Amino acid sequence: MTNSDADHTETRETRWLRESKGEGDSAPKTPPDNDKPGKDTAPVMRAGIKLVETAFAGKKRVDDPDTDIFDASNFQQVRNSWWLDRLLPSGVKNYFITAFFVCNTVWLIGLGLRLSVLGFDNVGHEAWEFVKDRQWQMQPLLLLVHFVCLRLFNGIYSRNFDRAFTHLDIRKPELDHYKRWFLGQRVNLLAFAMALPFIVWEVVEFATAADFYQTIFGADSPYLGKIDLAARNAEAGVLLTLWIFEWMMYGYYCYLMISGALVVRSVLKKHDFNESVDLVLTERHYRPLFNVSAQAGSLVLLYGLIHGAYMFYTKSTWNDAAGMILLVVLLGIAFSMTWGAVRGELKGNVLAALEELEKSYRAARTKLATMHDVPGIEDDIQRIQVQLKMQLALQQLDYLQTKYESLGRKEFLGLVFKMLAPVGSVLARIIRWGSLLAAIGLGGAAAIGGGSEKPEKPPAVNEAQPNPGANAAGNNP
Known about the structure:
The chain is mainly alpha-helical. It is 73% helix and 0% strand.
């Protein structure tokens, strides 16, 4: 057969297959390079370079307030009636400068008051004893964490307020009314009411506890032998004021979590989701309602880690432990209230949808039972359509029930993962930069070790090669 006959006999399928494999005439074949010795490692090198660039190149961070609680927008001041937030500046830089200044000022005030009580005869020694004091080592850090959590709690609850109700049929004026109620003047009174039991306990301990100084500074502190343990000096008064200030910020955290859950519950009782229940469950339109609780969980974990370190290091009283436990319990209550409100809102719609699907299934089954077995393609097609309708109804029934029963599980896992996100981010950065430093260190060690060894001089062409066997033979008698 000639070449022209072969071209005419080639089918379209063969030509498409050949073109898909790159065997067309337009793709010239590259002759293999047989002159290069060994295996071509260029692709491997390019892949390694790409991996390093991906790991260590500075990428532009995507701003996603739903996942990043430390987003800069959360440090912006928002309109609310909380007195302390209104006193603090807006913006990340100004806010941290102010918080750092306040924390260090409090520390310096404590140092000045101690020196005024003990005298200024041995300032260096007394200042060093103050620096070594565990209570004053941790108080500036704990106060800074309170400042950070204060603005972040306020930011995530106020900025996510409108987005939480995106998929509900609520109008903007009514939503603004809820927001004014949530962040209105009552926030100052209710936040103080949440913190009042802890404040009262601190004041009572300050006034009546015989071992107050031993508990605060430690029984083996040399400071205890230089003061009157029965009286309360100015330094102890500054510590009490600082604790009251921190408990008021703590009360604000508690107020936001509980009041936010109450607002969600109230809105869901009066309003429905915009879409049908199957679309709500499939696309999880209720998810924005849980985002705030998940972000609050991240802050609770951050606060808990620092506060736990403070309690362990300073051997604090059970009052601090009770506050930490209550904060975790309130977070769980807020999440449970939101969970119950969403399930209660969807329950009626889910039951109605299930009832309609059951009716459709029963009607199809009844119709199938009454159909006569008549030969013919039209009867077979009708029978298949009825069976498909029954199968579809069963699948929709199972799908809706599964989605409804699993409602909140992913959100709970999301709460846990978001709580661990700050810790995981820190660990990831440590591993990332630790690996980079280790690679640099190993590369430097290899370079130093390789540079110190002199390369062996190759023997000359006319130089006789050493023959260990001949030398051994020559030495034998």
